[in-house]
Amino acid sequence: MGLNNDKATRHLSSLEKEYENYLEYPLNLNITRGIPSEEQLQLSQEMLGMLNDPEDFLSKNKMDIRNYGELTGIIEAKELFSAILGSESRETIIGGNSSLSLMYFVLTTKLFMGSVPWKTKSPIKFLCPSPGYDRHFSMTEKLGIEMIPIEMDENGPNMDQVERLVLQDQTIKGIWCVPNYSNPTGIIYSDEVVNRLAKMKTSATDFIIMWDNAYAVHHLTQENKVAKNILTACKEAGNSERPWMFCSTSKITFPGAGVSAVAASEKNITMLANELSYQTIGHDKLNQMRHVKFLKNTNQLKKHMEKHALILKPKFDLIQKKLNERFNESNLLTWTNPKGGYFVHLTTMDGCATEIVESLDRIGVKVTKAGATYPSGNNPRDNSIRLAPTSVELADLEQAMDVIGLCIEMISLREGNKK
């Protein structure tokens, strides 16, 4: 898009003058990470005082949870988290406050332990639907696993691409998936995608699906749509050992003091529990019981998450309002309108995202680094920006969106003028 007329030239000039004012008087706004706000954290404050009576320290099997034991988690926690994940209690292990640590544990177990470790068959490769979760990719890179980007659309990963790759290369050992309100695009995997992941033929007989269900209950509307259960689909397809499902309460209660869980086939869980037994005698059972007493069951959990939605939805609505006002009639930008999760994804003109993010940083507005949601931070089209609005006040977000819109428009027009 070239600036071939006086009106367009004047508009760019006015944007640049507005930007210069921000250079002189920069802001101080940070929307880089998807973390709960203080108001959201306060929703769970009651949980901290829930263990008071002697009976509170006894599990269903009359075990004192203040003592050693229950390697895979207390019965009550396994029942609650298996209901969230769609597994059986015997197929579930309860971990500490981070589901990422469970993912790392599964990968290192597959890499170095078991009867035939992956590392005896190196090099190892993983499919990485992109844009995706940056911490998945940094973990994979840290472990020396080669990452293969996979295109994403409104239904999930491009399954034609996935099926072709896994059929022809036995060193491809797995795929990362965020099936519900995917980070950062907010899409929900379609039933077709889930079924194809479950049924597809793979050259590697030990191929796995890392199913990070981080936003399984994080709805912003009453639709409450979720992806089909991958464990059930894999069982029906005769590939029961393929999926590993993860979740946590990091964005339900307290990120710093939550509970995580992993679910898989009984065989996989038995293998993982055996490896876990060399590391610990059990995770924090008091915290597990606090969460059980506070969240109780999936119905109570739903009510709790509706309180989160009341806090979050106005922020997501504001982003949509601001983007529509500025770019509805423009070809400079497209964006997602998620029904849940923690992010809004912006697709800029090719070659613009990095410069937009850098221009924002210069005037005191920090967003996630451009390309961070791609393996090794490498987005060949340089057109991806993730917005994480959850932790900031509505007034600050409104100010940030005005500046974000300014920088997107200014940098895009400059880039268009070059072409």
TrEMBL record:
Keyword terms, alphabetized: Aminotransferase, DNA-binding, Transferase
Keyword DNA-binding carried by entry: yes
GO molecular function, one term: L-aspartate:2-oxoglutarate aminotransferase activity
Superkingdom of source: Bacteria
Keyword Transcription regulation: no
InterPro entries assigned to the protein according to its UniProt record, in alphabetical order: AspAT_Ic, PyrdxlP-dep_Trfase, PyrdxlP-dep_Trfase_major, PyrdxlP-dep_Trfase_small
Protein name: DNA-binding transcriptional regulator, MocR family, contains an aminotransferase domain
